[in-house]
User: Fold this.
Amino acid sequence: MNRERAFQIVLRLVGLIFVAGIYPLTVVWPSGWSWHTGHSDYLQMILGVYAALGVFLLIASRRPADHRSLIAFAAWSSLVHAGIMAMQALMNTGEQAHLLGDVPALIIVGIALIALAPKPLRPWLPSYPCAVLMVCQTPTRPSAIGPKTSVSPKYAMCESGFQNASGPPTRTGQSEVTATR
Assistant:
């Protein structure tokens, strides 16, 4: 089994657990999975958030590369959530069973999603250069010195690489491509 296929399986497994597995765990082992006893509005809210995230992870499992931001959010938010819960469980002795339940489970989810991802999960940096700084010159009111132009940068995103205003898409090694209209 290759790494990409394993990643897709993990995404499906995590998605299914988030959609349908967390609630049964709160019933079977409430001290390790539920932060409140009896009826809890908090539990209903967190189950709703995780169920929604699970549905989108299932969708992302088809083409993970197209959903890097979502997968990065699922991974990093799981680690942050686990860290916060761990601190709360350490401070509240009545909640220490979470250190054996949902805390390590979310740590495993976060690490697995990051470790199996085909490329580093850096959604803020695309896998290819695609942001172009386009400088558009627009005339403003003339002055005694001569006609003025104002320069306003505009960012253009494209699927296949740099989009040059004067022709077909091109790629360059430069960090910025400047085109004028």
